[in-house]
Amino acid sequence: MNLRALDLNLLVIFHALMTERHVTRAAMKIPMSQPAMSNALARLRYLFKDELFIRSTRGMEPTPRALELGEAVHQILRQTERLMSSDLSFDAATAQRSFTARMSDLVGYLVLPDLIRKIRSDAPGIKLDVLHMAPERTVKALEADQLDFALSMELKHSTSIQTQPMFKDRMVCVMRSGHPLAKKKRLALDNFLQAEQAKVAMSPTDIRFVDGVLMDQGLERKIVVTVPHWLLLPEVLGKTDVIAVISSKLAARLPRDALVTRALPFDSPDFHWSLYWHRRHDNSIPQQWIRSVVAETCRDI
Question: pLDDT tens, 30-85?
């Protein structure tokens, strides 16, 4: 391939299509007209000798080749953005750049509203791209420079990753206010183990702070449904007799008239939600700025 003939704007368009999976929405994100976006997609297909995106009832589905290119293109765009901007001249009030972060829906629910408010107030040109991925992939993404920072808990990582505690939390049991167990001010271990429960699959939190503790005692709870996201739980709990173990910080934000919280009937350690980043960004002025905004936001939780 002749790199001199490559238009970098095509990579920006490819990334927009990968993100939006829809031609019209991708065109609005750039922004450009829909015919121009369709023409650019045709050029991308010719360039990579692949269809890249196939129309479906859900939008534009990426081909295996597009999925293969996705992370590499995202990385190229991030590096190009950094190349065109100087850390030394970074001024948050006028800067035009983006940061990529990893948060689960749980911690995003707690942090994002105030974080976005602070960013829009102090740095209107800054954009935040939030991803959710498994803990192991999060560490790999930090090491591969695919993330600027992660807000998570107890990630297992190498010495190349820095960490800073943000705020303390603990796990509690939540159920609907009309649940038979809600009448009890104190939840007995037998009642807890016999109750039908929901579990979040993508998070290791339950394993470390619930199932792992129970397993050490030769005990096991009754899991009847496994869901991929924390914010599915309030609706499930409110309309069934299923109970769940969730973060106390999240439980405090849920409707108190519909759901009640009880302490776990066994010892479960407190934990910290922490900020993670790669050591390569220790002295980066933009990175220091975004970490300080995250830390300021978390102090208010």
Answer: 889 989 999 999 999 998 999 999 998 888 899 999 998 888 888 788 777 766 66
User: Hey, which CATH number is domain 171-269, 3.60.130.10, 3.40.190.10, 3.40.190.170, 3.90.79.20?
Assistant: 3.40.190.10
Compute the distance between CA of residue 268 and CA of residue 214 in angstroms, rounded to an integer: 10
DSSP letters spanning 139-159: HHHHHTT--SEEEESS----T
Q: What percent of the chain has pLDDT over 70?
A: 94
For residue 146, the one-letter residue type is Q
Give the Cα separation of 84 and 78 in Å (integer): 10
In residues, how long is the chain? 301
- Per-domain residue ranges of the chain: 1-84, 90-168+272-301, 171-269
pLDDT number for residue 2: 55
Distance separating the N- and C-terminal Cα atoms of the chain: 52
Question: Residue 209 gets which letter from DSSP?
Answer: I
How far apart CA 91 and CA 68 sit, in angstroms, is 35
Helices (H), the chain: 8-20, 23-29, 34-48, 64-83, 105-122, 135-143, 189-194, 205-206, 212-216, 233-239, 248-251, 285-299
The β-bridge partners of 200 are 227
Peptide bond into 31 cis (omega under 30): yes
CB 198 within 8 A of CB 236: yes
pTM over the 0.85 mark: no
Indicate the class that CATH gives domain 1-84. Answer: mainly alpha
Distance CA 171, CA 206 (A): 9
